Amino acid sequence: MNKPAHLSVGLTVGIATAKYLMETIQYSGIVEEIVGVTAVICGALFGSLLPDIDHPKSYIGRRLRMTSFMISKTFGHRGIVHTPIVVIAFTAFLYFLTLQLSGIMQDVSLSFVIGLGAGMLSHLLLDMMNKRGIPFFYPFTSKTFHIATFKTGGIGDTITNSGCILLIIWMLQDLVVGLINSLL
After folding, report:
1. Whole-angstrom distance, CA of residue 133 vs CA of residue 82
2. 109-142 confidence digits (pLDDT tens)
3. Does position 175 have pLDDT exceeding 80, yes or no?
4. Cα–Cα distance measured from residue 111 to residue 32, given in angstroms and rounded to the nearest whole number
5. 112 and which of 29, 43, 80, 155 could share a cystine (Cβ 3.0–4.6 Å)?
6. Domain residues for 125?
7. Structural domains counted in the chain
8. Distance (Å, whole) CA 133 – CA 83
9. CA distance 110 to 91
């Protein structure tokens, strides 16, 4: 999948995650709730692109050139960085690091990390939708798995983007109503 598809799914996952967190976490006020929702969505958008750090010509690889180059040379594209176990371990590591913070910084950081993890998992799901797939069961096997065979930039990306736009509109409408209700 291409960058717009990763971003549209990342935004969709970010909004869905934020909606879930709004219903399960008691924020101390409307400002904290808005900041938390924004942090989740920003984390999901960043996370939806982050696994491609292992490709120097990717959007994120071009911005973090040295890191991208080192990861690419060490692990290759769609290697270890594209595995659920590494994404979950990385997210858990960041989550426990943010527990060392306190107050609003902890709340915002935790929200961002939750969104980041959700966005990274959405990236892996999309990459499983083309022929190359991902090494889903790494480190047990390096065999790649896919659930569809869409071409990057093809009809799969178009369907994904269109579906996500509809979902985003629907969820944003519901999210705004939820924020307004918490004001009342």
Report:
1. 9
2. 999 999 999 999 999 999 999 888 999 998 888 8
3. no
4. 11
5. 43
6. 3-174
7. 1
8. 10
9. 10
Residue with tokens 């993890």: 117
Instruction: Return the number of other C-beta atoms located less than 10 Å from residue 131's C-beta.
Output: 11
Answer yes or no: are the C-beta atoms of 96 and 102 closer than 8 Å. no
Mean of per-residue pLDDT scores for the chain: 89
Q: What is the pLDDT of residue 78?
A: 84
Task: Decide if 180 is inside a domain.
Answer: no
Q: Produce one character per residue of 107-116: b if its CB has 16 or more CB atoms within 10 Å, e if not.
A: bbbbbbbbbb
Closest CA to 123 of 41, 69, 50, 54: 50
Please report whether residue 183 resides in a domain. no
The pLDDT tens digits for 75-105 are 888 888 999 999 999 999 999 999 999 888 8
Residue 12, in any domain of the structure: yes
Residue 137 burial (CB < 10 Å; 0-12/13-18/19+)?
middle
Q: Is the peptide bond before 84 cis (omega within 30 degrees of 0)?
A: no
Residue 76 belongs to some domain of the structure:
yes
- Identity (one letter) of the amino acid at 126? L
- Structure tokens, 53: 């750090």
- The phi, psi pair for 150, rounded to 5°, reads -70, 150
Angle ∠(39,42,46) on CA atoms, nearest 5: 135
Q: For residue 150, what are the β-bridge partners?
A: 130
Tokens read off for 122: 């959405």
